[in-house]
TrEMBL record:
InterPro entries attached to this UniProt entry: ARM-like (IPR011989), ARM-type_fold (IPR016024), Armadillo (IPR000225), Insc_C (IPR045789), INSC_LBD (IPR031938), INSC_LBD_sf (IPR038205), Inscuteable (IPR039921)
Chain segments annotated as coiled-coil in the UniProt record: none
Keyword field contains Manganese: no
Domain Protein inscuteable homologue C-terminal: 80-532
GO molecular function list: cytoskeletal anchor activity
Taxonomic source organism: Catagonus wagneri (Chacoan peccary)
Function: May function as an adapter linking the Par3 complex to the GPSM1/GPSM2 complex. Involved in spindle orientation during mitosis. May regulate cell proliferation and differentiation in the developing nervous system. May play a role in the asymmetric division of fibroblasts and participate in the process of stratification of the squamous epithelium.
Record-level GO cellular component terms: apical cortex
Designated name of the protein: Protein inscuteable homolog
Coarse class of the protein's main subcellular location: cytoplasm
Any one GO BP annotation for this protein: establishment of mitotic spindle orientation
Keyword Cytoplasm included in the entry's annotation: yes
UniProtKB keywords: Cytoplasm, Developmental protein, Differentiation, Neurogenesis
Intracellular or extracellular location(s): Cytoplasm, Cell cortex
Amino acid sequence: MMALPGGRHLDSVPLPGQRLHLMQVDSVQRWMEDLKLMTECECMCVLQAKPISLEEDAQGDLILAGGPGPGDPLQLLLKRGWVISTELRRIGQKLAQERWARVHSMSVRLTCHARSMVSEYSAVSRNSSQEMGQIEKLLMEKCSELSAVTERCLQVENEHVLTSMKACVSETLSTLGQHFGQLLELALTQEVQALVRKIDASDNIHTTESTTGNLFSLTQEGAPLCRIIAREGGVVALFKVCRQDSFRCLYPQALRTLASICCVEEGVHQLEKVDGVLCLADILTDDSHSEATRAEAAAVVAQVTSPHLPFTQHLSSFPESMEEIVTALVKLCQEASSGEVFLLASAALANITFLDTMACEMLLQLNAIRVLLEACGDKQRVDTPYTRDQIVTILANMSVLEQCASDIVQENGVQLIMGMLSEKPRSGTPAEVAACERVQQKAAVTLARLSRDPDVAREAVRLSCMSRLIELCRSPSERNSSDAVLVACLAALRRLAGVCPEGLQDSDFQQLVQPRLVDSFLLCSNMEESFV
């Protein structure tokens, strides 16, 4: 199985029926099929009378072990595409090192892979356009040109001549890469078009399920493929599925695919064109839909309202459905049966609070603070720093409202915020450590904003929040040396000290409160762990 960078596998997991089929295939026949792909590069070298490289890194040569299944053009394109793009990158590296023998042998192998991709795809593709045929011809011409010029470089000893030839090889390699990219995009576009047409025309639940699954697999290959899918009508076809009652059992799969496509601008634009926000609102507010369906709809809302993507800030159709969506999401948080469902619903709410300040007022009216703070005590719903990150984000954005402070005090929210200042990773993975830092930072920001209210400030002092903030400022390990957490804690400490200065020792006041913020920051950011 060929693995993509990031641990993603190109081979899909076979279904039980497929596994049985594979066991029944004659082992010699499978070996013969694999042998062709495993040996063709070596044969190519021998046929052209080129020795197989004995360099130490030759063991790292790419071999496509086990070709794609018969009649599976998508897997063929993805596998061959990954191998060729990797070879292009490695040739560039060897060229920079001026290892000419290696550059030439790899160029020959690249030609072999390119020829195999072209011939194999031609054998299984439905129809090839004239444009694709022209690019295939240009690609193979450049491959031959690269092999020829790198062979000439092996016979040249003059450094000045090699330098000029190196520039020529680099230009040829660049042009070859462009032709390969164009060919791969055309071929993938053709396959995506076929999948979209199949979904659009199908009234068979099994066909639609299989095709939607193929489309979802493609979205996992990255943003370029998501753009192709959006451009070729994938969003339109999937929303058509989500509007047919006969396909209700496929809604979660279709919505999950939509969430992936909407990581790119083209996907969000297509969603707007087909009134996708209204469709999502209908699904979220319809209790007859399963929790899984509503959770996947929440995931799409979270994606299209993400504050990290600039193009999600201009959803013209969102405000008119916002109240319905926010109400449904709060209800989903309240009734969530698992941590995953709660995470998706709370992430959507957190993003919406960035999108429109009116959302915070709606949440206040819906008693969302009580729902969120009660959930913090339920390990089945809130059990990771990622979920607490969403909750504290909502609280931080709501804390700009004056009424929010009294609601948080009534629900013992200050104590929960205090607990978030002590958020620690359990696994130590970079993602979890970063999530813990965000929780600490946002908890400190929330505390600083809420402490405008003297009642909140006094409650925070009573709960020893000042001691914890001082510890976070003075001890880099407590905040994982995060500057963002340090700044937020200094700001919160100064706000509390303004209301209850008696809670500070003189040394803390003189170092952390009295100086300019930047001076206290510099002092703490360069501080060894000490409480002197």
